[in-house]
Amino acid sequence: MRRGWLTLVVVVTSLAACSSPPVLLDEGAVDDVASAEQNTEFAIAPGWTWCSAISPSGTMREPYTGSRFELDDGSSVGATVLDRRAEGLTSAKLLGDLVADADQCTLEARPDGLGTSIEPLTDLEQDAHGWRTRDPEGRWGEYVVVPLDEWRVLAYGFVTRSEEPPVDLDELGELAREGAERLAPTEG
């Protein structure tokens, strides 16, 4: 009997050591990943460039649920789940706040070719909001926020200096949504 328990303890311990915490996006989902940040305060969805008011960093709370990949060409790709249920902030309210913040950035933008710009993305899924941003240093990004449920919002996007996007935004959104659905919502 004692030998059976020892075997069970060894097997469970081995499995625990081999498993890692669940992640929103798997590194293998994106090509040419140079470095990855998973489930930390730095694992935030990029794409908002200079418009920090719509950055996930201002609305993220522990425990963090996010993935951010730095690619070989210097581009960044990622996704973040924003969950503010502990504060009673619904996904509808959070989305409304983010849209208002993006509107404020639009007023502050300098779309004269020398400064900053922000414009809404079209052809997004229902209830999604997204923007294309550009900063004076030549970085540009696309950033989308969409409700997952009553309390959680999914943010995903990329930022790059290349002419072509580093990922297909729709595909990134699908992968991020699949990842979010696998993860249990945090309790507030």
TrEMBL record:
Q: Which organism is it from?
A: Cellulomonas pakistanensis
**Keywords from the named record:** Signal
At the top level, the lineage of the source is Bacteria
This protein's name: Lipoprotein
PROSITE patterns to which the protein is assigned, alphabetical: PROKAR_LIPOPROTEIN
Signal sequence residues: 1-25
